[in-house]
Amino acid sequence: MGKIKFANIIFENSLQEDRHSRLFYRGSGQAWKDGETYLLSANSFFDFTTYFNSLSVAKLRLYTTASSFSLHLELRGGKCEIQKGRAGNFSHNGEFEKEEVSVPSSQEWQSFSIPFIPKESDVLLSFALKTHEEKVEVGQCYWELEVEEKEDTRLAIVSTTFKKEAYIQKTIKALKEDFFKDFGNCHLFVIDNGRSLDPSLGDENISIIANPNVGGSGGFARGMLEATKKEGEFTHVLLMDDDVEICPES
């Protein structure tokens, strides 16, 4: 058994945050980026029972070997309280425990690992954070799982494009900045049916492959062939449209 970092708590992505902030957190407060960290407004309540930041514990228990669940937090600044939360099939909002984890004010980083013991009826695990007179700065914050020995997973992502340079370049940029730097077991194959992309967009994690205009299915087939050229190099292939709005954390 070993612990793994499973999912980061995120406050934004390439979506328009002012329109979609409730996908990340709900409540009375605001969060804004400050370099590599985030600042949470004073005298505010943040509910992370949201699409991106809750933990799908029911699916993890059903489909994985995960046996324990915890929340890792790195905080500094003003004092705050953290409440553990959960949601079931018929929950409209998260249900939070009365007992709180109190975090004192500090100008130094403080690390916390908060264990969760899910009930059989729990579908999601979540948490809430309440600030007081001072802002709170958030560093590394993520869900952590204890699992049996990890399987060796290597992912090939295949995207077919035809003269949609702006779309696919945005996807490539997002993956380069927020994905490949942390995960070295993935590779993106861009099948360029329009033969209009600059090959220099590729690197050790990205292959730009010029292809005849054989349509979407033909492009995906070419991508799967490229991914399986070397036996055993990849364990899974993910087919992805070229004009999607992606969140690399997903």
CATH architecture of the largest domain: Sandwich
Q: Which regions are unreliable across 5 or more consecutive residues at pLDDT < 50?
A: none
Distance between the termini: 24 Å
For the biggest sheet, the summary is: 6 strands, antiparallel
Our Rg estimate from Cα atoms comes to: 21 Å
Number of domains: 2
- Beta-strand segment tally: 15
- The H-level CATH homologous superfamily of the largest domain, spelled out, is Galactose-binding lectin
- Number of helical stretches of at least 4 residues: 4
Envelope shape: elongated
Global mean pLDDT: 90
Element string (H = helix, E = strand)? EHEEEEHEEEEEEEHEEHE
Please state roughly what percent of the residues sit in beta strands, choosing from under 5%, 5-15%, 15-25%, 25-35%, 35-45% or over 45%. Answer: 35-45%
What is the CATH topology classification name of the largest domain? Jelly Rolls
Textual characterization of the structure:
The protein is of the alpha+beta class. It has two domains: 146 residues, Jelly Rolls (Sandwich); 86 residues, no CATH class. 15% of the residues lie in helices and 41% in strands. It has four helices and 15 strands. The strands form three sheets. Strands 1, 3, 4, 6, 9 and 11 form a six-stranded antiparallel β-sheet that branches. It is elongated and about 60 Å long. The mean pLDDT is 90.
